[in-house]
Design goal:
Blueprint: E1 2-6, H1 10-22, E2 26-30, H2 41-44, E3 54-57, E4 67-70, H3 72-83, H4 91-121, H5 127-148, H6 161-170, H7 184-194, H8 197-209
Parallel strand pairs: 1-2
Antiparallel strand pairs: 1-3, 3-4
Length: 214
């Protein structure tokens, strides 16, 4: 059993994507970040950086005590190694997957996150910041598009944790002032992942725990 501490953000969706794809049993614990629940003392014991997602694996493969992890990339890597799924054993494909996972963690996620903040949530509209992060997001989309012109999935021929990490950050492309039509290879990849049954199930949690306000 995996206990998942989650909210309906791109980083939260990464983990539900994996759990649904792998068919792992899990229990979801909503952490409403709009209400500050990520600062609760009990949650900070699991996630000292007060960010979702975090997990507790109640049955780690070493047979020892439960393991808790925070940081979405570390969680994806842990779950892939635990299950032997969605991370290639072939040396070259494995390294492709890992470098694109870290590309998302260090590039796409932070830049798109700043794009969201300055474009939608900042109390003061700062044209320089909006243009800076919109342009950088477009550049990163272009990098991804070029990669996907060469391969079916980000890591190569097989769907992997790199795709699961990247896809949720592309879902809000309109909020990021991007058009998928400008990136045809990315668009093909995006539509392929969107149609996967596990993706559909993972995103059903949004309506259950954080439905759109009328």
């Amino acid at each position: 059993m995996i206990d998942l501490y989650y909210w309906t953000t791109p980083n939260g969706h990464k983990i539900t994507l994996f759990l649904e794809e792998a068919g792992l049993e899990y229990k979801l614990h909503p952490i409403n970040i709009s209400k500050g629940e990520q600062f609760a003392a009990d949650f900070l014991k699991i996630s000292p950086n007060n960010r979702i997602p975090a997990i507790i694996d109640q049955a780690p493969t070493d047979g020892g005590a439960p393991i808790s992890l925070f940081e979405s990339g570390a969680i994806l890597l842990y779950l892939a190694e635990k299950t032997g799924k969605f991370l290639a054993t072939d040396l070259r494909e494995r390294q492709q997957v890992l470098q694109w996972l870290f590309w998302q963690m260090g590039g796409l996620g932070p830049m798109a996150g700043q794009n969201h903040h300055f474009g939608r949530f900042a109390p003061e509209k700062i044209p320089y910041a909006i243009k800076r992060y919109t342009d950088e997001t477009a550049r990163l989309y272009g990098v991804l598009d070029k990669r996907l012109a060469q391969a079916t999935f980000v890591g190569g021929d097989h769907y992997s944790i790199a795709d699961m990490a990247i896809y949720p950050w592309i879902v809000p492309y309109e909020m990021q002032n991007q058009k998928l039509e400008d990136f045809p290879h990315l668009k093909r990849w995006f539509e392929t992942i969107k149609a996967r049954p596990a993706t559909v199930k993972a995103y059903e949690w949004t309506a259950k725990v954080n439905p759109p306000k009328p």
